[in-house]
Amino acid sequence: MTKPSDSEQSGQTQTQGEGKLGIIDKKISRRDLLRMAGVGGAGLLLGATGMGGLFSAQERSSAKPASQTAKVDSDQMVSFYGTHQAGITTPPQDFIVFASFDLTAGSLDEVRKLFQAWTTAAATMASGEMLGSNNDNLNLPPSDTGEAAGLSPSRTTITFGVGASFFDGRYGLAGKRPAALADLPPFGGDELREEWSGGDIGVQVNANDLQIAFHAIRNLARIARGKAVLRWTQEGFQRTSGADPAGATPRNLMGFKDGTNNPDVNDDAEMKKVVWAAASDGTPWMDQGSYMVVRRIRVRIEVWDRSSLGDQENTFGRHRSSGAPLGSANETDKLDLEKKDQKGEPVIPMNAHIRLAHGDGSVKILRRSFSYSSGMDNKTGQLDAGLLFICFNRDSRKQFIPMQTKLGQSDLLNEYIVHTGSATFACFPGVREGGYIGETLF
Predict the structure, then answer these.
(1) Domain range spanning residue 25?
(2) Does the predicted model carry a pTM greater than 0.85?
(3) Separation between Cα atoms, residue 325 and residue 323, nearest integer Å
């Protein structure tokens, strides 16, 4: 692989005078530009050569034509800045594009510069603005890919985290790995594939428009050229707010409501207990951050669709229509795990998903999952579709791992699902204006 030049790594290029690239003062043709960047570069496949990626705050705040920046309604924008990162307790948007990156940067300073550039870009995209100022120069690639021009922010949130491999010693950070960023053990139902697992950095982008969410990941990948490469991505969706103005609990691809028993994100005490890490946990730089678990769960759609409604409801332990626990009438009715039917059998089967996930009620996580569909599996002729399971917790060792261990052993749902991807990330605390994401670690 050809080593990128210093100017490519910094996201800048020279267009006038003598310089490292040896370019004289003249207009640059498209052919010249491609030759300079190297036609084999991954950045070109994304529609860019990395130029204009690491733009300054002055460039970001420069005036933009009205045709490029939408008029923003306050309810369409979620600020990137705050005590916590957005996209964790934020009400779930309609779409997700999740991306895992592997670092190629040669030094910690380069990693720091990447996060600084990503912070500027993320805050800009969350506000619905165009990236950079090179969007009208005919002689340069635009600094923004343009597909979100004129669109509202659509409640875009961009959430960053780092995986266990980030602390493998390359950047002198091995001693700063949080104990709570634990490697997940093998679980029952795992058939994990490398192409859907792991990563040095995880980025969750949510928005009420899929094109806008894709735009964010695409531009973050452009900015990262020379410092990080995409490892895997997954798009996801739920019913849109337009399709369900009432905002009912969304249904997964198995037809059941998903997330009914989530803890109340408006209860600060509960969030401190369930979601937010604290300095007292042993990792001060993670104070007000959270730990994210990502699991790509394929549903055996064809098998599920041939199952009777009774079997389906017993599998989940809920009525499909109302979402209520079996034996109850309303979705939010309290679980009665002791209730028996006329034969003396538990109304909610002992291995029903809801019973095992609930346990004694003391272990909770915050679910933020989306359905996915990746077309057809050409090997089997079946649909590759299911759930992009995402959850946040204060300590996966005490919350997600014991919960999933129990589910993997005897959950009736295991007959219909297989876990094909897995990753965990330590999601940084929020960032103040003028700071950058990951600043507490670096």
Answers:
(1) 1-40
(2) no
(3) 7
